[in-house]
Amino acid sequence: MYDLLDRLRIVESSAFVAAPLAGMTLAQLGAEVIRVDMIGGGLDFNRWPLSRETGRSLYWAGMNKGKKSLAVNLRDPRGRELVQDLATRPGEDAGILLTTFADAAWLSQEALAAKRADAISVAVKGSPDAAPAVDYTINCAVGYPHLTGPDTTPVNNVLPGWDIGTGLHAALALVAAVDRRRRTGEGGRAEVALSDVAMAMVGNLGQIAEVQVNGHDRGPIGNDLYGAFGRDFATGDGRRVMISAITVKQWKGLCRAAGIEETVRGLEAALGVDFDQEGLRYEWRKVLFALIEKWCAGLTLAEAGEALIGAGVTWGPYQTVGQMLADDWRASETNPMFETVVHSEVGPVLTPGSPIEFAGLPRVPVAPAPKLGEHTDQILAEAMGLDSGAIGRLHDDGIVAGPA
Question: Which residue out of 37, 135, 163, 377 is catalytically annotated?
Answer without folding.
Answer: 163
